[in-house]
Amino acid sequence: MEIQSLSLEVHQAKGPVVWTKRADIEFLKQQAAQSARGRSRICAHPGPDDRTHEMLVALRRDNYIHPHLHPGKVESFHVIEGLITVVIFEEDGRVSEVIPMGDFASGRPFYYRQTKPVFHTQIPESDFVVFQEVTQGPMTRDTVLAPWAPPEGPDGKLQAYIEALMKRVQTGHRG
Question: Which of 23, 56, 60, 86 sits a CA distance of 20 to 30 A from 8?
Answer without folding.
Answer: 86
